[in-house]
Write a structure and sequence with these properties.
heterodimer; A: mainly beta; six-stranded mixed beta sheet; 11 strands; B: mainly beta; seven-stranded mixed beta sheet
Amino acid sequence: GQQLNQSPQSMFIQEGEDVSMNCTSSSIFNTWLWYKQDPGEGPVLLIALYKAGELTSNGRLTAQFGITRKDSFLNISASIPSDVGIYFCAGQLPGNRDDKIIFGKGTRLHILP
Amino acid sequence: GAGVSQTPSNKVTEKGKYVELRCDPISGHTALYWYRQSLGQGPEFLIYFQGTGAADDSGLPNDRFFAVRPEGSVSTLKIQRTERGDSAVYLCASSSLAGTTGELFFGEGSRLTVL
């Protein structure tokens, strides 16, 4: 079945450092999405990517839709304490009416004091 | 309402019991999704509604799980003969235009614990 492989599983960084995480799949996706989840909350959309090769920024966040449509990365620059949380990549599968969106297992970001 | 509302926020039940989880989507959103999230995992797709009909229910794990959305708004996820392995957070999300932006608005989830 379709699976999204996220790496790394977790990251421990110092405040101010840049962060990079990625997501790969054996399936082609029409849309790549990056969500963030805080404890006790549902995921919230950070960035959506719709075209192969697309590079999109949202403040300190930058994400790219891989050329092969099978991968994406998310970068966070100059991390701050509120960046702590779980980051999920998600993909929307191609198909006439299939709007199913599947999620990776997440990258847990920790900021060391 | 302002956001997606899920009730109950917490449900503790005994093995073998029947459970209903409710989702009230953002007003006007036509698409509604149910996901299940186990500890340390990402949201696992269960079922997706476009209006009143289930457009894709391929993620429902077995026939103990069923979901309805009779009037195209509120949805109920029903779990029969609950098992300990059903314990998880059940997330509901809604979207205004299915198949376009991929932006899902999630509720805070219903945490189900089966003893």
